[in-house]
Amino acid sequence: MKQETNNEMDLLLRRLGRRDETAVSGVDHLDADELSAYAENALPAAPRARYTAHLADCSRCRELVVQLSASAGVVVATESVKAAEPSGWKRFLASLFTPMVLRYAAPALGLIHQVVVDE
Prior knowledge:
By secondary structure, this protein is mainly alpha-helical. 72% of the residues lie in helices and 0% in strands. Helix 3 crosses helix 4. The N and C termini lie far apart (115 Å).
């Protein structure tokens, strides 16, 4: 009886496998090695472009690549964001408050203030 149950299960799994393949209208899916190489970014440009075209159409393979990428710890390259350069006016004002300028400007302003107030 146990052997019969296993045979039935095998038959059901085979049917399910065939149904999934025919649902995509005869498209050959990527095998495990191709999927893992794609997920790890370890492919030359030509095969990578071909696999990318397949992944654009095949949600099953795309889902597997996402899972493999997450499990492999592959980090997607992102562009570094640069801070916007301040305008010329802001740069000029910032240069007035540098420590070197303040070292001489503070005593000079105190002296000018003293001269103006005394008169």
